[in-house]
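Researcher: Dear colleague, please comment on this protein.
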Amino acid sequence: MQKGFCGLIQSFVGPASVVRDTSSPADNKFVLTCFMAGDPGRAWSQQAATQRQESLLRQLEKLYDVENLDAEFLEMHSYDWVEDQYSGWGCPCASLTPGVIDTVGADALRQPWYDLHFAGTETAGEWKGYMEGAVRSGERAAAEVVQHLGSGVTAKL
């Protein structure tokens, strides 16, 4: 913020390909969410945890034009989506070709289909791609289900 950055970086050299500022200053929580992808991400994932942290910190120093990021760094948490059997072995986000949402409408991803209701960060009306969006989307879908259950429809097993 002090340097006027927008909070989103895309890098083609890695290890992180996308870096998002997901901080909550009101809660005194300062977080960068980093996505590793492609060849740089694969190479990074093969390193030991200490090497992964070191290479990421060096990249962040270059991207944010800071020195000695180690002095401010607290901890790193990582999740290997490739090992997650429920995400399709990759980061779980909707990748649609240009024009699809314009054609089907902004609410299309969150519309119920029969008794199936959709929730997840990519179906959020606000804060897509963030935990806040996932929580809001879950609350919306839960309210839809409660409303549906109260409408007199009976489930048949």
Notes: The beta strands are 8-10, 16-21, 32-36. Residues 131-149 form the longest helix (19 residues). The mean pLDDT is 84. The two ends are 54 Å apart (CA to CA).
